[in-house]
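Lab notebook page, bench 4
Experiment: in silico fold of construct C2
Operator: M.H.
Input chain length: 199 residues
Purpose: comparison with the prior construct
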Amino acid sequence: MAWLWTCLLACGVAAVGSLAFLIRFAERLKYEGRSMRPEKSDVGVVLGAYTDGFEPSHPLAARLRAAIALYRQGYIRAIIVSGGQGENETVAEARSMKRFLVMNGIPADAVHEERMSTNTWENLYHSKDIMRDRGYRTAVIITSDYHLPRAIAVARTLGVEATGCGAASTKGEFRAAVREVFAHIEYMLRGRQAPFWKA
């Protein structure tokens, strides 16, 4: 029976070590995202997240509030809201996002909707098309702090000249931050090559 207890102990140590690694990595991503500073740019690109009808989730509302602040402070002169309609959503994320922005004083003609995206790579790929069509050369990528490092890396892969603004996440977003750790690692392992990156 000694071997069984040894195996159980080893598994327990491995599990604790793995959890500690995930927590530290997630905290590192959050720190990097919050440390990024936006530069004055042509447009802000807000990456989508879950919305309950026209009611944005807490992470999405935080991203939108960050975009509103940047617009009012003169960092950006227009906003692209990027996000399609998920299987568990009744409206496209971009529609909900634009409504939130307009209700909070952003001119409707300053908000451009991108409704096709289902992941980070598509968010920035399709937003780049809107930037090209509208004559925007530079962007501030706006998303949750833990998500921003990968989003900026995707933007650079696609040739988008961008800085970032990380909306502060809460403790309630811990699971999302941990998922982002796996996505970030997979992205690095794949060599940051689009269009194979689909998360």
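Observations: The longest helix spans residues 2-35. Strands lie at 43-47, 51-52, 55-56, 79-82, 111-114, 138-144, 161-167.
Next step: discuss at group meeting.
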